[in-house]
Amino acid sequence: MQLPSNIEDLFTQTHDGFKAMKLRSASEAIMVENALQRAEKSYQTKITRSKKRGREFIVLLMGTSEEAAHAA
Known about the structure:
With 72 residues, the protein is of the alpha+beta class. The protein has one domain. It has helices at 26-38, 66-71; strands at residues 13-15, 18-23, 43-50, 54-65. Strands 1-2-4-3 form a 4-stranded antiparallel beta sheet. Mean pLDDT is 83; it is low at 65-72.
């Protein structure tokens, strides 16, 4: 997975009101987490499991909720 120069461009979805991206593998999630740490961005990772989709890693970009974006 090639990461763009602006890591925030990867967050095209929303989850719990925050910008999010869903990943299938732990190694991809770790790569994104490392890039966020280097960019000094706040994030949270959730792991979900379902029979239909299997295991997903959801990386949330904290501090950029949709409500905050609309208030600005």
